[in-house]
Amino acid sequence: MRLVVLTCLTLIAFAANSILNRLAVDSGAIGPGAFAAVRVGAGAVTLWALVRLRGRALPLFAAGRWQGALALSVYMLGFSMAYRALDAGLGALILFGVVQVSMFAWTALRGAPATRRQMIGAAVAFSGLIVVLWPGGGTSVDLVAAALMVAAGIGWAGYTLLGRREPDALAATAANFVAAFAPVAIVGLVPELVAGAGAPNAAGLGLAVLSGAVTSGLGYATWYTVLPRLETGVAAVLQSSVPVIALAGGVALLGEAMSLQLLAGAVLVLGGIGMAIRG
């Protein structure tokens, strides 16, 4: 029962990142660059504290650290900037669809044999993304924002693949957050300050800290706690439920619209991912 509760809380936390980001940026309470910087900073502090409580050192200079920090930076910046124009559920759908397709493509390029079911599933998921991004049909998608979310998905896929080599996932994640703070702040926050963007208000800062410390920092820590007790296929299927949670949350909490085109695309993306994973 404890495993079920922790797993459900983690998936809700992942979906909440989309809702919190969209709510903060779309309302003008904080700029997307500032949101990303505060989110990374709050997550770094939280994860560092968790590592210290376990009596571990922060592996800041481990091999491959800059690659992990770079991938995390691309994800954070693309994620925040995309939500200037994307609904929470739509952004999560593009993100997780790209993550799964990217990881599948990387595995195939590395020489791992792909089954017929996996190839069909990847094609179905990709067709779902095309349906979502296709103009017309009641869903208007900002292509620049969609491209930013695609970049975020590729960044998160790379970050996930790099993380498989880490002996201590929590300590490595904390180190990556610490190392990513400077590039995220320079690329995201500094241009906003130079352009004379208004200072974030208390609500915007609070949402960014909540996203970084709780739904990112504690969310990732909880995920690493339950992940060893879940089969790989089960874990992947569970993650594919995050866009559904984000879609529901966006409709219920943010008043976002649910069109037939978006619903059809979501079914194709999630169905294709499920098919590929089962294969």
Automatic annotation (TrEMBL):
Principal localization? Answer: membrane
List membrane-spanning regions: 28-51, 63-83, 89-107, 119-137, 143-162, 169-190, 202-221, 233-254, 260-277
Family matches, as Pfam families? EamA
Annotated compartments: Membrane
Q: How does it sit in the membrane?
A: Multi-pass membrane protein
EamA domain mapped to chain residues: 146-276
Q: Which UniProt keywords apply?
A: Membrane, Transmembrane, Transmembrane helix
Give a yes or no for keyword NADP in this entry. no
- What Gene Ontology cellular-component terms does the record carry? membrane
Q: Which InterPro entries match?
A: AA-Vitamin_Transporters, EamA_dom, EmrE-like
* Name recorded for this polypeptide: Membrane protein
Which source organism?
Answer: Marinibacterium profundimaris
